[in-house]
Amino acid sequence: MDAQSRGRADDIDPADQWVLNPQTGTYELRLDQSPAQSSPSTNPAGAPTVPGSRTSDGRRADALGRGQAPVPGQRSHRARGGDDGAGAPPVGAGRRKRKPGASRKKKVLMWTGGSLALLMTAGGVGAYVVYQRLEGSLNTIDVGDVGTGGFKKDQAINILVLGTDKRTGTGNTSYGDRNSEGHADTSILFHVSKDRTNATALSIPRDLITDIPDCKTTDGQTIRGARDTKFNESLGVNGRNPGCTMQTVTELTGIEIDHFVMADFNAVKTLSTAVGGVEVCLAKPINDEDSKLNLPAGKHKVKGEEALAFVRTRKSVGFGSDLSRIELQQQFLSSLLREMKSSETLTSPTKMWDLANAAIKALTVDKGIGSIKKLQELGMEMSKVNPKNITFATVPVVDNEKRTAVLLQKQKAEPLFAMIRNDVSLTEVEKKEKATKKKTPGPLDGPRAEASDVRVAVYNGGGPQGAAQETLTWLQGKQVNKSSNESNAPEQAITTLEYGPNQADQARALADLLGLPATALKPKAADSVGTEPMKLVLGKDFKEPGVPLPGGKTKAPEGIQKVEADKQLCAE
């Protein structure tokens, strides 16, 4: 009999099977008997007596059970003495005093930490209770050496969450293309900061036009990539596996992926049901024939089929495109995350049990985290992030009228990608910038000149072909009209900005615009006179104007779509 059926045998609440282990301070699921145990005692109806359950006559079963091995560190009633003849000790006899401050809620938080954290990793599509019984049920895919192959406690973590449109599972074949082999439908790059204070969940539109690199199948065969094709073809087409999608995301963003977590339609249905429903909000009534969602305006708790209909809806919200559906999905995942963090869930072993079973069945992960132990380690790192510091954002794109495909909006997307690469939070940008400033003033500390007062001559010393002219055009669009293109300069590795002592405020203003690090600023001698324009030489590290250089000041681009996980928005 499997773990789930055992937990539900004869209407026994699985929550009653969790027993406190004094050695670890955590609750453990007592499903198996050790080889040395005798057969479990039975109640009059013949059902096994489970610790903490009730017998058929309504009496509480012995917490340890006759003949059942105790939890390590606990003493049996017989060992303590004081048997009242019915196998139960006198009330209060032999009980250990609870340690000060070790409330039940706190202990439950301890054993659910990894479960909640992995839910965040999966953008709201997973939860794990760490016990060996579920090990064999975990689905894994070998993607070879794609990704970093691990994660470290003192480094940022990047997990690719893949929602596939494969129609497997009960009741799912009626949705759209029932023969779909499963493409990259809902994809989220989940970045957790090095200090674990914040996280960014970056949604990647399935219809984004991008390049897919060459990749390998699970049997080592090379699959040719494709240029200028939809992102969702990075999975499922020509045998492409999640490793291909990981490589595509890295090529698109420049961000190295550690691991992937993949979920299907059943994840939404089972997990929303396990938490008792997910609250969503509609600014207007929706009756969508395609998704089968029919709800009036206002707040609702959705679960099961209705939850799946909510995240699949697109034609009845916003502009009717996949971009509008992404906003619905972000609202749903934020709400699911809040529900997971609520005290009702944290203190309910039953809910955590249901979530564990739902997650194990609905998720597939790479072999690098293909064990309960590895997932626990990853989960405990994730659990440190407060939902108010988790931001959902979407890759900036240029939408088209037909909305069948979208193009990357580079001038907004690249700074956003740079923020994630540089481990800068979308919710704490200003705070982080202040924290990283040195006590002694540096070249970037001080007043800034107006853009119209900045005088600069631009040279290309190793940047992409045409970079000087492109930068000039970009600067003039930012009101830096006193700028000029001076063509080529000797090649150099890094970009530099040379300026006179009386041009420091101009240098700071230009550094802010271009994202130049302090090391790029080269002041002239103090006795020199800055009568000539500043000299900007674009080095090999320069990509394009608006993309911060390594170590440069990173600023969140204006107009990007983002929402904090602790806030609820109503879909329009």
Written account of the structure:
By secondary structure, the chain is an alpha/beta fold. The protein has helices at 3-8, 77-80, 104-121, 242-253, 265-274, 305-312, 322-341, 343-346, 349-362, 372-382, 410-421, 429-436, 467-477, 504-514, and strands spanning 18-21, 26-29, 139-141, 157-164, 184-192, 199-204, 209-212, 215-216, 222-223, 226-230, 259-263, 278-282, 286-288, 293-295, 298-302, 363-366, 390-394, 397-398, 407-408, 455-460, 482-488, 496-499, 521-523, 534-538, 562-564. It contains 14 helices and 25 strands. It has an 8-stranded mixed sheet, with helices on both faces. It has a 5-stranded mixed sheet with strand order 21-20-24-22-23, covered by helices on one side. It has a two-stranded antiparallel ribbon with strand order 1-2. It is elongated. Mean pLDDT is 74; it is low at 1-20, 29-131 and 171-180.
Question: Structural class given helices, strands, pairing?
Answer: alpha/beta
Strand order of the largest sheet: 3-16-11-4-5-6-17-25
- The poorly predicted ranges are 1-20, 29-131, 171-180
Distance between the termini: 48 Å
Mean pLDDT: 74
Q: What is the radius of gyration?
A: 29 Å
Helical segment count: 14
How many beta-strand elements? 25
Question: What is the overall silhouette?
Answer: elongated
Strand content: 15-25%
Biggest sheet, in brief? 8 strands, mixed
Helix fraction, binned, reads 25-40%
